[in-house]
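**Fold in tokens:**
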Amino acid sequence: MATNPPKGDNHRQGAVRDRSQTYNTKIEQWVKRDTDSGRFLDVKQDGAKFKGVRREHPGRGNR
């Protein structure tokens, strides 16, 4: 499980589990997905990637 202490240092210990992110070229933003259900969870509004969430590579499937 990912832990975050100490508070406020903007650092995560470990990766976020059961989540992935992919880049949506139509809206040009990163989208976070639940890998179990495939549902979209969140969209990053500032154009940056989500921290600590693995990326899906287009054309290679979900690894």
About this structure: The mean pLDDT is 84. Strands lie at 19-24, 29-34, 40-43, 54-55. Residues 5 and 47 are 26 Å apart (CA to CA).
